[in-house]
User: What shape does this take?
Amino acid sequence: MSQDRQTARTSEAPDGELAARAATGDSSAFEVLMRRHNRTLFRTARAILRNDAEAEDALQEAYLQAYRALPGFRAEARFGTWLVRIVANEALVRLRKEARRAQIVPMQSADATAGLEELPDDPMEQRPEPSAERAQMRRLLETRIDALPDAYRTVFVLRAVEELSVQETAAVLQIPEATVRTRFFRARSLLREALAQQIDLAYADAFAFAGDRCDRIVAAVLARLLRC
Assistant: This one.
């Protein structure tokens, strides 16, 4: 089999097969697994830690833990959920350590505008104005998600952003499914309220007239009056 065909076969192989190969020391198989699950795992860590750099560190540590634990992975389990649980546990451990440190030395809050990974490109994004508007809306949404209480934020990201099922989210966070449903419903309600308030505040600025537009119209009228 040619190298290209071997690479293609690896990239298309199911998680279970790749995990089994990685458990025997196949680094190329583990690389495919990392690339396949990177976005979901990063978003999971960031939902808990609210900091890009901390989330990356937690993700790297979680991958090392997963690699060491691969021989014990049971193929009947969903590999992606297994990975999410590992990274969530690592992020939660870091969050608890950070909370204990904060009790001794106050820490600055995480940057609320740091955000989720870029959404996939589409034709609208190729034009500057829609791209800027999309980026602005994304930053607003990221800020509001970051402002959610910890328990609600993590559930919301796993359910709404990464589209994990109620059962998978409950397994990852080790909470009852009913709690997942309740927290997700509450998170969506809080987001709606926050976004609605933001829109209400923006009404006063809609179709702004001050500044250049006002000066331009006044100057034009005055110029025409002088000609009368």
